[in-house]
Write a structure and sequence with these properties.
31% of the residues lie in helices and 18% in strands. The protein contains eight helices and nine strands. The strands form two sheets. Strands 1-2-7-6-5-8-9 form a seven-stranded mixed beta sheet, with helices on both faces. Strands 3-4 form a two-stranded antiparallel sheet. The chain is elongated and about 125 Å long.
Length: 289
């Protein structure tokens, strides 16, 4: 409770003290405890660094078909696919090319499990005039259910999925993500041909390994230019999510694009009974426009 100087003088007079408090008595100076506290804590005031703004390339191709979901689509010129191919290489009969869907995913890791998710799905199929390539890319985590619904719309029970190690990795991973999103399992019941196994039977021991990049270079004559290794795809996507540059993520799109184009060419190559170990024809590159 504060008492003014005037009230103190009036109280002194009422108590019999005639002399008023001398107004010349100086009041104590106001005390600022902050400097002492800073000394006690051993801290110093630091000047805030100037905030610099750096231009960041965030541009990604495609159309936003849902919030945070981009879709890319184009048709590539492709040698006219026959109505059927010889499936002896896969120990089956003739395979109809209509209804084939070549697919591949880019994921946040190779360990699998519920913590791994696909942030990109690519697919190709034969259409009049060439090979259609479609890709889905999520640009934030909340768009994953929309991507799963979009990919499910590309599937039907009468089609045949074709992949490279997809039976052991891509398909189980997507099935897990569908279950976690409570969207059912649209991959169930669809025939699935994994080209890894017939490729191994034909080329095991011929080259250093049977990775898709090795097979496409040596057997198909495909040379990738400025390809981003698949192991760097998760980091490129996380960099973009954290507000970073989109340059590496665009290269992931190119990598995925080439994968699904290579699958179609590899099928045609394996279906040729007299296909040797060398590439037929000159080397070529394939990249989206």
């Amino acid at each position: 409770m504060s008492v003014s100087l005037e009230k103190l003088q009036r109280l002194r007079r009422q108590a019999g003290h005639g002399s008023a408090m001398s107004p010349s008595v100086p009041l104590p100076p106001e005390h600022d405890p902050l400097p002492a506290l800073r000394r006690m804590l051993g801290t110093r005031e630091r000047a805030r660094p100037a905030v610099t703004t750096r231009s960041c390339d965030r541009a990604l191709p495609g159309d936003e078909v849902a919030p945070g979901l981009l879709q890319l689509e184009q048709v590539l010129p492709f040698d006219e696919a026959p109505s059927h191919v010889d499936g002896s290489f896969a120990r089956v009969g003739n395979l109809p090319t209509q209804g084939m869907l070549f697919f591949d995913t880019e994921t946040t890791g190779l360990s699998g499990g519920t913590g791994t998710r696909a942030f990109m799905v690519g697919a190709s199929d034969f259409v009049p005039g060439g090979l259609r390539v479609r890709q889905l890319l999520i640009t934030h985590l909340s768009a994953e259910p929309a991507m799963l619904r979009a990919f499910a719309g590309w599937l039907s029970e009468d089609m045949r999925l074709i992949s490279y190690n997809g039976r052991c990795y891509d398909a189980p991973l997507l099935t897990t993500r569908y279950r976690l999103a409570r969207q059912g399992t649209p991959l169930a019941g669809i025939e699935h041909l994994d080209l890894l196994f017939p490729t191994r039977r034909r080329y095991r021991g011929v080259w250093e390994n049977c990775r898709l990049a090795t097979i496409e270079r040596n057997a198909l004559g495909i040379v990738r230019e400025d390809d981003l290794p698949g192991s760097e795809a998760p980091g490129a996507w996380l960099q973009y999510l954290r507000g970073g540059d989109a340059g590496l993520l665009r290269r992931v799109l190119l990598h995925n694009f080439q994968d699904v184009v290579t699958l179609a060419r590899l099928l045609m190559h394996l279906a040729q009974p007299d296909a040797g170990t060398a590439a037929a024809g000159p080397a070529f590159t394939c990249a989206p426009s």
